[in-house]
Structure formats: structure tokens, C-alpha cells
Amino acid sequence: MKKHKIIITKYNSKYAEQTVDMWRDSKEQAIGQTEIHGFENHVYFLNHILPEQFQIDLALIDEKVVGMIAYNEREISQLYIHIDYQGIGIGQTLLDKVKAQSSGRLTLYTFEVNENAQRFYEKHGFEIIGRGHENEEKLPDIQYEWKSK
């Protein structure tokens, strides 16, 4: 696979549809469940609801959205990588940036069925601090925490 130049940039709504497409595909593959919200609702959530509490960054390769992360100094709300671009360091690049800007402690949730995400977070220093929280998908989840050394 040739080395791609990955650009990390603040979210811009011109990427809304690409971002939501990537997000839905990635999540569907991860949890084996179709997205419960319609596409337009998802775009609205990305453009209007999520930015109220979180900064959103995108990973781009040649103007194509290959990853997104939504975070603040204490929490990661969303982290999705394009299904064709997983395992090449995009998630780590996004995570490292968020860790550097964090309060020294981050929490996040991931679905219990998403074993790839669990391996990823554990490899990057996150530890399980809770299980079984409520979510719209009605799937058991895991809460992780990372603390800077």
C-alpha cells in the first residue's frame, strides 16, 4: 500500500455527507447493526448537536474523509476510521492529538461487540473503568479511561 499523506484538520461542513457516509459504514461494520438514525438526521447531528460540546477533527487523504474524532479535554465522543483505511495509523494520529490537548485524562465508550476498538484503545493505554451503560443501540458497552503518565 502506498504511503498516503494524511491531513488532520478541523471539521468543515462541506465534508458533512462524506463524514456521515464514512461514520455510518464504519459503525455498521464494527457493531453489525444498521444505523438507527436517518442520513439527514445524522448530518444535522454532526453539524449542529455534536459541535456544542465537542471539537471535531477530520483525517483527509486527497480531500477524502478517512477518519473523524469528536472530543473535548476530558472525553472522546466519536472516533471512526473509514473501513478501507483502518490499521494504517489514522486512529493513532487522531488519538495522539487529542491526548496532547487533553486535561491528562480521557474517557470514552465503545461497544462490547467491537473487539477491534477494544484492542485499539487498550494498545494505546486505555483501561476499562465501567461496563453496561445505556445507549440508543441497546448494546452492552464498555467505558475506558486514559491517564497521562
TrEMBL record:
Source species, domain of life: Bacteria
One Pfam family in the UniProt entry: Acetyltransf_10
Record InterPro entries: Acyl_CoA_acyltransferase, GNAT_dom, MshD_Acetyltransferase
Entry-linked SUPFAM superfamilies: Acyl-CoA N-acyltransferases (Nat)
Domain N-acetyltransferase: 6-149
CDD domains according to UniProt: NAT_SF
Name of the protein: GNAT family N-acetyltransferase
Annotated source species: Neobacillus pocheonensis
